[in-house]
Amino acid sequence: MKQFRTVFPIVILIFFIINQSAAQKGRLGLPPTVGISEDRISHTANILNGTPEIIVFSEGDRKKATIHFQTTKALPEAYCYYGIYFSDQKVQTPVFRHYSREGVVADSLNHNITIDLSRLEYPIHDFGENLAKQGGGTVAYKLLLPDPQDAKTHMFTGRFEYRNTNRVVCIVSGPWVDFTAPGQVTISWDTDRESAGILLLDSTQHFSPLNTHHEIIINNIKGTIHHYKVTAVDDSIEVTTPEFRFRMPESGKPFLFAAMSDSRAGYGGAGHNFNGCNFQDLRNLFLDLYSRGAEFAVFAGDLVNGHTTDEHDYIGQLDAWKKAVEPIGHIMPIFEGMGNHDYVLDRWDDPRTNGGIRTDKLFGKSSEEIFAEIFVNPEHDYPEKEHPQAPTYKENAYYFDWGNVRMISLNTNYWWTNFPEDIGGNLQGYIMDNQLDWLKKVLKQAQKDKSIDHIFIFTHEPALPVSGHIYDAMWYSGGDPQMNKDINKNPLNRQHVIDRRDRFLELVAKHDKVRAYITGHEHLYARLLIDSQTPIYPDGSANKKIKPIHEFITGGAGAPYYSLTKENIPWVNAIKAYSCQQHYLLFGVDKLDVYLYVVSGTQAVIEAVKIVENGSITDIPISENTIIIFDR
Prior knowledge:
Blueprint: H1 10-18, E1 53-59, E2 62-75, E3 79-84, E4 95-101, E5 108-116, H2 130-134, E6 138-147, E7 152-163, E8 166-168, E9 171-181, E10 184-201, E11 204-218, E12 225-234, E13 237-240, E14 244-247, E15 255-260, H3 279-291, E16 294-299, H4 311-329, E17 334-336, E18 345-348, E19 357-360, H5 367-374, E20 398-402, E21 405-409, H6 420-423, H7 433-448, E22 454-458, H8 495-509, E23 514-519, E24 525-530, E25 549-554, E26 575-579, E27 583-590, E28 593-600, E29 605-613, E30 616-621
Parallel strand pairs: 15-16, 16-17, 21-22, 22-23, 23-25
Antiparallel strand pairs: 1-2, 2-5, 3-4, 3-6, 6-7, 7-8, 9-10, 10-11, 10-12, 12-13, 12-14, 15-27, 18-19, 20-21, 24-25, 24-26, 27-28, 28-29, 29-30
């Protein structure tokens, strides 16, 4: 007899499955009832097996390095581009100057590429003679792994540090600047070996003990513009980053912020499918939003492909996303939220369904816990867990204030399972009780706070989808039992989804400072204006409690594009604009007015609209030339 991972008897599970018509929510919100750990199946797309090993050595009068790495499948000859960083760049991106190839004929699981470091030290290639002065420096590399069988070229990037013919400590991620509480900044970075850390912020030093991961929290930071750099100390070697600067919120001044979502892997070659994310398009969007003067960015989920059963694969994908945005993460805060793809799973075969049973990781760290370890987000206030066995909301549901704006991150993919009414856990797009109560508290605080004029909510799942996700999100085909099935393929009435969506919309409507909720999930841009006349039910009726509010769907950060649905949706006339182009949203806040600029991946403005005028929701086309540009 199989064991089950729950304290609830199996007879309760059977009772709920038989009585779905009487209790449609079933086990939703209860700990998942699943098979034993040993019966789990593996599902991963991981290609790189572990972290590349780099050995620096001399060969005659040449300095060289060999990059050794293993792949999970036999692949043909790999290539490597390598180069340096220019010390005078405000935005630090690697500049590749040379290449090397593996020089093998047969496909292999083991790969070795040797690169010639001495070529980087040639006077014509050594910018500012930095390598010559210190006998080495930081080397960036890009591995390209052709995979003819899957019509792909896999790409991986990294960096290492050398002095003469020795490899030394390297800052391999960061530094990152993040705002984690009112008046608080966290500077974080990672090194490839244990080292002590020094942060020089303006003229004050702060220290971090021996470790590979470093986070230094600075409280009560004053002023607007700040300069910093970090140093890794390993024995007698000190490796220091260039100096970066960041901007703190400035009371009473206009400012810009950016929002986007859905950067999981796309099509078009190696840079578009970089270990689960669209590295190339994501980086270009971030470079553009920074150049236009955004002070911070929010990302509403689906950073990566995810849906792997391998924790190391999941961490590697999130690390790839961080590498894409890192040049901007040095100099402005990025606030990340979770989407339906940002998950590491446990999975079991089940004859009742083709995809088997899938749950947020139960045997090991949950997706939410790993997400909090990888990213630095506000943690001063977040919802209570929905159950003692449920995951944490720490650093995936949070809020922060910037000037006269409150930004609230919701997790609409919390504790996910694919059949929650049958096995437990939670449904994609369903906001659970504790998080809804927490939202109510945070909205009430902001409504009373005279320094807050505008509230924006960002989350992954749209309340009113318009494209490929009308069958889920907060809609599920209106809860229609004929369109929703339980694990046994019986009709399932999901009216509870509509009821919970209504509670969310009605809660938002009670607080007239809420201007919009910003979502992703659907890979397009759509702007909806919703009010008490907007049909939001299958019969075409409206909800009279809903006050005017914008819904922005901004799923254009690199995932494969969608178009508008051809299905009939009740709120079709509420769609004011849409585009299939890759894009991000740029909001301009000037006291009681808010402007929206939708910027494409080709740096053109798709549309420009005034969405708030003198504290009231509006919908007025404006000139794209009104974008405020800050002096960086």
